[in-house]
Design goal:
Shape: globular
Oligomer: single chain
Number of strands: 7
Radius of gyration: 14 Å
Distance between the termini: 33 Å
Order of helices and strands: EEHEEEHEE
Helix content: 10-25%
Number of helices: 2
Mean pLDDT: 85
Strand content: 25-35%
Amino acid sequence: MPHTHADRKGSTMGTLTYASLHLEFEDRLLQHLQIVIIQKFRRHEAFLMSWKESASAGDGRAAIWLTPNVPISFKFYGSKAPSVNRDWLSSLGRSADSSTGLIVTGEDGELALASPDSGQPGTAHHKWP
């Protein structure tokens, strides 16, 4: 079965690649994560980012330490740039600046799912106990 870049709801899924880690997030969420992460990196700040894993990745939560010294890329599969919700962006930014680090949440404040990008080699997982 060919790899598709859409979730079960039909939302376009983009890929965040950091070192050898490849994660899929819904394009709109990825747009907001890109802004927050790049803002931190522009200030030369490293921080923790955590997310909820999908059932295909074994459920649970995962986290990774992000530093501006490691290459990162964002691949969007939608043809148009998603709109930016300033309140959601602010919430994610406050989270990134906190001692818990950036906890990836959806626009509704609920934990957002990340899926391993099965179309990419080298998918890695850093599980929390």
